[in-house]
Amino acid sequence: MSIILDDAPAPGTPEWQRSITASKIPGILGVSPFDSPFAVWQKLAGRWEPEPVDKPIFRIGHLAERVMCEFWQEQKAREGERWRLNPGGEMVYQNPDLPFPHFVTLDRRAWKGGRRFRVLECKTTGWEGLRTWRRPDEPDSIPLNYHVQVQFQMGVSGIHEADVLVWLRGGDTIEIHHVTFDPELFTLIVAKCESFFQSVIDGTPPDLDDSTATYDAVRGLHPDVDEDADVQVPDVLARELWDAAAAEKAAKQRLTGAKTAVLDAMGNAKTALLGDQKVATRTPSRGAITLRISKPTQGKRRW
Q1: Each residue of 144-155: pLDDT tens digit?
Q2: pTM value?
Q3: For the domain that residue 90 is a member of, what is the CATH number?
Q4: What burial class does residue 202 get, using C-beta atoms within 10 Å of its C-beta: 0-12 exposed, 13-18 middle, 19+ buried?
Q5: Would you say 182 and 152 are in contact if contact means Cβ atoms under 8 Å apart?
């Protein structure tokens, strides 16, 4: 039975770090572009508390939630549905039946009639969103990391209707993506969370990986420098580091050469195309020209 928490810990606090929240689900499952199982494990174990990130895009995203939800409400009214928004803003739910510390924060809870509720989750994204989001009427329209996050929110809160609202930079509207609750997926997520939290209790972290999140976590675990200490590393590890550094240098040189050739082919043109796909764009920046490279569409949304 789900309950509403009126005194939930604030994001970034030690209690918040050591609880499984909806935002940690993609990292636990290994499907997050921003987090990793190793990094989430260290936070849950209380071994690493990353410095709070204060970027304008985060503040803008939080402020945009009200606009996005009111837009959603107006769209529903045009469709003949009168929904109301929870006047208190965010709502926090917990399900005491789950065997690990957790809670989920809903950006908004919408309701109509007697007891019909809907989760509203708001997202803002930069240009990369044009590649990772599909159109609302297409299958799997939202990125997988957000999909599993919303499934956990629905399962914990007991509200089995959800809309994800996304404001794409460069887009002329706020998109509404409906998400259907998948009880089997929620059961799998809960099972994974239970075993993951048990590994925290047992003190057995996941393996290292090559993600930036894991790199940042390892750096955070060892912030001090012992000037008198030396460590011998295995030959294979040293060779891998040297080979990777050399490959990075070669890749940067190759990229510079390719950019030079494309710029030369473009002349004064703004955009380079391959058929109907955008390859690159020339934009003025501080008195010079910058080449912005577009990724291949590969079946994602086309513009």
Answers
A1: 999 999 999 999
A2: 0.86
A3: 3.90.320.10
A4: exposed
A5: no
